Amino acid sequence: MKDPQRDRIAAAFDRELARSPVPHDLRAQAVHYALQRRHSNERPRQPMVLALVAAILAVAIVATLVFAAHSLHARQATPANPGVPTNPIPLPKSGALPPGTYLLPKSDPSCAGGCSVYRWSIFTLPAGWATSNGLFYKHLNQPGEVAFSFWTVDKVYADPCHWQTSALSPLDIADVAYDQATNAFVVPPRFGGLANQYLRGPLPRVLTPVTFKFVDATGASAPTDAWRINLSVPTGLDISTCDKGQFRSWTTWHVPGGANSHNAPGQLDAVYMLDLDRRSLVIDASHMPATSEADLAELNGVIASMIIDRG
User: Are residues 209 and 293 in the same domain?
Assistant: First the structure.
């Protein structure tokens, strides 16, 4: 049989308890105790009953809040960058690469005092990619090519076509300054660098701050400044007329005579410059005008997946 009095008491408790989560068993005990006292003629003891019910509710609320606070603290204590893969695939020196997440060690770990300070990079490749001589690519030497590569840049050629007699200058972010007023790193304007290189698209060329994922040896995040500059190769340029038939962007620090010369007429490059200790790490992501939107999205996705371990 329905008990209207009980229903009214239960409804009143539900309204009050809806504001704070309380275990169901304690709510039921409080309602039951209130109903028991309903049949008593000892009206002077009603304040005691209400006080007891209030005490039960207070204990339940405090316990719930303590548990919630503990849970929140536990969530905040989770390790930084939990998405760092635990078992990336070591990269082969050449050949087709099945889809997966790969680990690329620093190109010259034995260099002393000059190369960039980092241990490795991790990135995820979809199907259809391959590697050779440090270049990662899809549709190599075809109109729809996409590619990327890692570099420790030494000097930038002022004239990438006539590079044998070209002036040389440091990379654009060689003199990064810290602005205390804005709490940010700033690349001061300077002569030379990729921003002023001949034949690489219209001026002025802007360095755009970008975000990369960095970790240290413990796996914790380690914020590092990075910039991107967009470059191009003239569509009508006959590269065979350049010195030794090469269009060179820059020299490399740890390879005598080495240079970035994988360029073709009309090529478009997004060059990422990462401000690491000693020397910057440069990632050159290139594509062609005929590259499909799907392949360009893949290239951008690979760049976005990268994690650099600064050690």
Answer: yes
End-to-end CA distance of the chain: 73
Q: Are 138 and 147 in contact (CB under 8 A)?
A: yes
Give the position of tokens 């997440």.
Answer: 101
**Residues constituting the chain:** 311
Q: State whether 43 and 146 are in the same domain.
A: no
Report d(CA 44, CA 176) in Å as an integer: 79
Is residue 249 within 8 A of residue 157, CB to CB? The reply is: yes
Sign of CA dihedral 293, 295, 296, 301: positive
Residue found by looking up tokens 């290139």 in the block: 286
The model's pTM: 0.70
Assess if residue 199 is contained within a domain: yes
Q: What are phi and psi of 43, to 5 degrees?
A: -60, -35
Q: With respect to residue 104, please indicate whether it lies within any of the assigned structural domains.
A: yes
Give the domain range for residue 52.
4-76
- In whole angstroms, how far apart are CA 224 and each of 116, 292, 306, 308, 309? 13, 32, 13, 10, 11
Q: Is residue 281 part of a domain?
A: yes
Number of separate domains in the chain: 2
pLDDT in tens, 118-177: 778 999 999 999 999 899 999 999 999 999 999 989 999 999 999 999 999 999 998 887
Alpha carbons 12 and 25: distance in angstroms, whole number = 16
